[in-house]
């Protein structure tokens, strides 16, 4: 099996990559990086990602890190397999690219803080900082307002087809659906329908089957 | 002239886009958005970018926002003009993509705070928060350590050729060279040489000629 993902169950960035591989029907091996044993900070893993963070990725002689760079590679390298995750039309692909950047620059900075405070901290026995939750819930509001307007125009963020722009949202959205932030999605009918739609994709359901129960 | 950039002199994200257009020898018109008159929050501009931030971009019937999405479009749409900013080889392009993500996820979050505190706040008559400067200078250290190691292996971050991965660093690097953060670059010979090299590119020198004197 040529494709290897070096990550672990519990890492949202790892899930982002797995979602792209399941969408593409690309066989892969998930090589667990033992974070508790600090494997991600040892030379062997640092040679794969000098920042010492999961996931890292290998496809034959291609070695990559940064989850969003990996999904782009998967979308292009396996363009003709499974779901098309990136339009072959330059204009459509550029618009998908805009909304992929919006995820990285606007959605992720707010939702990464919220998933940390509301899901991961309690999981690790730490106390949620409600002031941080309030601050970043407020920051998420205008982002979801823009999404609501966008999703009134087209079914997916990047256009009429599911693309990386939507896929990149899956891990944080999945986590937030189990928190009070769900009400912010629910308050917007198009955002709510879009979230339900992408979370129900068979490829994502396969990823969630790996989640700790 | 088909290509229009809606932005203003003083916006680092606008400069990122201008750098890509100068590298490609693509003629463009810079349409100034009057931020003082809140033009960026009015319906006409919000139709270009619903987040109300510069730059926005137009190329015939292609309308985009988010500076890094725009530069990618420019690199692909004008692939055969000027400097190649994105390799046509899938593997090389994927590695450039990794380092472009590193800029967005690691370099920019630290340096955007530093440019704000050390350059823009004094420019607007505001007081620099030295605690913030210290915090983000520290966060920049491991990023520059990784860059130093990477630039020992190859001349540019994405490989042996200049690419978007380097270009995206230009605006914040330009500003920081006029601050005490320069010493963090200078302390690393390969990072220092790389910064000097990319800042001296004729396309970037054209952008800097627009900077307020």
TrEMBL record, chains A, B:
Record-linked PROSITE patterns: GST_CTER (PS50405), GST_NTER (PS50404)
Enzyme class: transferase
InterPro entries noted in UniProt: Glutathione-S-Trfase_C-like (IPR010987), Glutathione-S-Trfase_C_sf (IPR036282), Glutathione_S-Trfase (IPR040079), Glutathione_S-Trfase_N (IPR004045), GST_C (IPR004046), GST_Phi_C (IPR034347), Thioredoxin-like_sf (IPR036249)
First and last residue of the signal peptide: none
GO cellular component annotations of the record: cytoplasm
Record domain GST N-terminal: where: 1-82
Molecular function GO terms recorded: glutathione binding; glutathione transferase activity
Residue ranges occupied by any GST C-terminal domain in the UniProt entry: 89-213
Listed GO biological process terms: glutathione metabolic process; toxin catabolic process
Record keywords, A-Z: Transferase
Reaction equations catalysed: RX + glutathione = an S-substituted glutathione + a halide anion + H(+)
CDD domains: GST_C_Phi, GST_N_Phi
EC annotation from Swiss-Prot or TrEMBL: 2.5.1.18
Family designation: Belongs to the GST superfamily. Phi family.
PANTHER family named in the record: GLUTATHIONE S-TRANSFERASE F6-RELATED, GLUTATHIONE S-TRANSFERASE RHO
Name recorded for this polypeptide: glutathione transferase
Organism: Deinandra increscens subsp. villosa
């Amino acid at each position: 099996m040529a494709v290897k993902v070096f990550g672990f169950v519990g890492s949202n960035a790892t899930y982002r990559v797995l979602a792209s591989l399941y969408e593409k029907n690309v066989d892969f091996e998930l090589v667990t990086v033992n974070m508790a044993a600090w494997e991600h900070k040892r030379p062997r893993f640092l040679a794969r990602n000098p920042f010492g963070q999961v996931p890292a990725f290998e496809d034959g002689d291609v070695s990559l890190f940064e989850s969003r760079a990996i999904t782009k590679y998967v979308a292009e390298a396996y363009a003709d397999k499974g779901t098309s995750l990136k339009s072959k039309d330059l204009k459509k692909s550029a618009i998908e690219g805009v909304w992929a950047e919006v995820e990285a620059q606007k959605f992720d900075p707010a939702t990464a803080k919220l998933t940390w405070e509301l899901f991961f901290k309690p999981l690790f026995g730490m106390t949620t900082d409600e002031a941080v939750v309030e601050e970043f819930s407020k920051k998420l509001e205008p982002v979801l307002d823009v999404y609501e307007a966008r999703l009134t125009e087209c079914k997916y963020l990047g256009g009429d087809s599911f693309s990386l722009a939507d896929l990149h949202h899956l891990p944080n959205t999945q986590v937030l659906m189990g928190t009070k932030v769900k009400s912010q999605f629910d308050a917007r009918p198009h955002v709510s329908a879009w979230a339900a739609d992408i979370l129900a994709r068979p490829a994502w359901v396969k990823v969630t089957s790996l989640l700790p129960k």
